[in-house]
UniProtKB/TrEMBL annotation:
<feature type="binding site">
    <location>
        <position position="20"/>
    </location>
    <ligand>
        <name>Mg(2+)</name>
    </ligand>
</feature>
<dbReference type="Pfam" id="PF03332">
    <property type="entry name" value="PMM"/>
</dbReference>
<keyword id="KW-0479">Metal-binding</keyword>
<dbReference type="GO" id="GO:0006487">
    <property type="term" value="P:protein N-linked glycosylation"/>
</dbReference>
<dbReference type="InterPro" id="IPR005002">
    <property type="entry name" value="PMM"/>
</dbReference>
<feature type="binding site">
    <location>
        <position position="22"/>
    </location>
    <ligand>
        <name>Mg(2+)</name>
    </ligand>
</feature>
<comment type="similarity">
    <text>Belongs to the eukaryotic PMM family.</text>
</comment>
<feature type="binding site">
    <location>
        <position position="217"/>
    </location>
    <ligand>
        <name>Mg(2+)</name>
    </ligand>
</feature>
<dbReference type="GO" id="GO:0005829">
    <property type="term" value="C:cytosol"/>
</dbReference>
<feature type="active site" description="Proton donor/acceptor">
    <location>
        <position position="22"/>
    </location>
</feature>
<feature type="active site" description="Nucleophile">
    <location>
        <position position="20"/>
    </location>
</feature>
<dbReference type="InterPro" id="IPR036412">
    <property type="entry name" value="HAD-like_sf"/>
</dbReference>
<comment type="pathway">
    <text>Nucleotide-sugar biosynthesis; GDP-alpha-D-mannose biosynthesis; alpha-D-mannose 1-phosphate from D-fructose 6-phosphate: step 2/2.</text>
</comment>
<dbReference type="InterPro" id="IPR043169">
    <property type="entry name" value="PMM_cap"/>
</dbReference>
<dbReference type="GO" id="GO:0046872">
    <property type="term" value="F:metal ion binding"/>
</dbReference>
<dbReference type="GO" id="GO:0009298">
    <property type="term" value="P:GDP-mannose biosynthetic process"/>
</dbReference>
<feature type="binding site">
    <location>
        <position position="131"/>
    </location>
    <ligand>
        <name>alpha-D-mannose 1-phosphate</name>
    </ligand>
</feature>
Amino acid sequence: MSPSTTFADRVHPDTICLFDVDGPLTPARLYISKEMEVTLAELRKKCVIGFVGGSDLTKQVEQLGPNVLKNFDYCFSENGLTAYKMGEHLTSQGFIGYLGEDRYKKLVNFVLRYIADMDIPVKRGTFVEFRNGMINISPIGRNCSHPERNEFEKFDLEHKLREKFVSALQNEFPDYGLTYSIGGQISFDVFPTGWDKTYCLRHIEHENFKTIHFFGDKTFKGGNDYEIFSHPLVTGHTVKSPLDTERILKELFSF
Ligand code: M1P
């Protein structure tokens, strides 16, 4: 039986739990565990559930499984710029619509030149990934291997490559109204200011949820979960791992 769209079948139909993907639901860029799937299925009997991540839907499907649109009430990719409710697509805005082709071209040209001049141990491919509501920029390139991404993360921690890159972009394009967010291991996201994870709240506003829980790992100021975690309508939880998330859920909802 497919779950009700009014959520009246839940013990707490006026409560929603939203999860960041990397960290709270899966280890970084890896896959959801059987245990977490079982926990979420139990939780869904209690309240409404959704995820909100920076990645695009294709990657979230890889991480959360092929039935993701069925297993979550709300699926928010690219912070909610691509959104689904009960498997149905909801309309949202796009990055090019906001920026315009000319300004976008100047930005990408600058990025590619900057990466070409970077002296780093390994470069692979897909340095700019164009998504619906943002671009994702990676100095090593998105199609590096898993060991290569771990190495890059360590190298970046030491050399602050991404931080310097972001400063260069802020200096070059001060009037673009963009936010730069270092959320993962090898890249950073670029999106119009305000299109952070709080963007997804626009899609649930009319549901008038009394409680909105959010689980994130980068909830500190400057982290890509900070804005939604500290939003006045949201009860934020900082977690270190999927196990941490499961523990808090079981305490909160007594199962
Ligand atoms: O969810 C956090 C980030 O995950 C990926 O980052 P990286 O590949 O650098 O680990 C990206 O999908 C990024 O967009 C996202 O914010």
